[in-house]
Amino acid sequence: LLVSKDLGKHLLEVEDLLQKHGLLEADISAQTERVQALNAAALKFSELEGYQPCDPQIICNRVNHVQTCLEELEELAAKRRKELEDSRQLWTFFQEMEEAEAWIREKEKILAAKTCGRDLSSVLTLTNKHKTMLGELGNRRALLHQTMKKGEKILAKKTFSSVGIQEKMREVCLRWKKLEEVTGLHQQRLEDALNFFQFSAETDDLVAWLQDMYRIVSSDDFGHDDYSSQALLRKHRAVVEEVEKHRAAVLSLRKQLALLAPDHRQGVDVQIRVVEVEQLYGEVAEVAVLRTQWLQDALAVYRMFSEVHACEVWV
User: What GO molecular function annotations does the UniProt record carry, in alphabetical order (predicted)?
Assistant: First the structure.
C-alpha cells in the first residue's frame, strides 16, 4: 500500500487517496504502540538471570529487526504522504487554472455581447455594471496571481514534469492578457459613448433654452405706457445678459465636438446639430438687439405722449 505509485489523476481522486492514507497512518500509529509494548516485554527475557529460555542475542536481534521494520514503514508512510500532498498541490493548481479559464471565457462572452447603450441613461447603467466587473476582475487577478505562485513552487520542486504546468500557465496568461485588453477597449467605448450622449444632452438642453429665449425676445409686447415699457426693458436687459453668458457655451461646442471619438464626431447628424445651435443662437442674439431697440423706441414714444399730455393739461 505504501509503495504504490498511484498518485491520482484528478483532485477528487487525490483527496480520496489522502483520506485512505490517513486511515493507514492511524493504523500504523496504533500498531506502533503495540510493537513497542511487545519489544519491551521481549527485552525482559534477555535480562533474566539464571535460566534463559532463549539466547538474549536472538531476542535483541529480533526486537531490533521489528523496530527497524516499523521505522521503515513509518518512513514509507511519510514519503507516501509527501508524494500525495505534492500531487494534491499539482491537481489543485490545475483545477484553479481551469476555473480561471472558465471565468475568463464567461467574461469574454459577456463583453462580446455588450453594447454601448442607446442613450445617456443606458450608458450610465452599463458603465456602473462595467465598474462592478472591473472589481471582479481585480479580485480574480489576485486569485490568479496566487495560483501562478503555486505553479512556480511546484516547478521549483521538480517533482513533476514541467511541460504541462508551464504550458497551462502560458495559456492562461495569454487569455487573461487578451481579456484585460478587451475590457479596456470596452471601457474606452463606454467612455466615448458617455461623452457623446452627455454632449448630445447638453446640446439638447442648450437648444431648448435658446428656443425659450427666442420666444421671449421675439415677443410683440412693448408695454402700454412709460412704466410698463421701462419694466419690460429691465427684464429684457437681464435676458440679454443671460444670452451673452451662453455665448461661450455655444462657441465651445465645436471644441467639445473635436474631443469626441471619431465614430461620434464624424456623424452627419451631430455636425448638423452644432450648426443649428450656432444659427439659433445668432438669431436669438440678433432678435434680442432688435427688441432692445423696439423697447427703447416704445419707451421714447410713451415718454413723448406723457410730455404732450402734460402740455395739454397745462394749456
Answer: actin binding
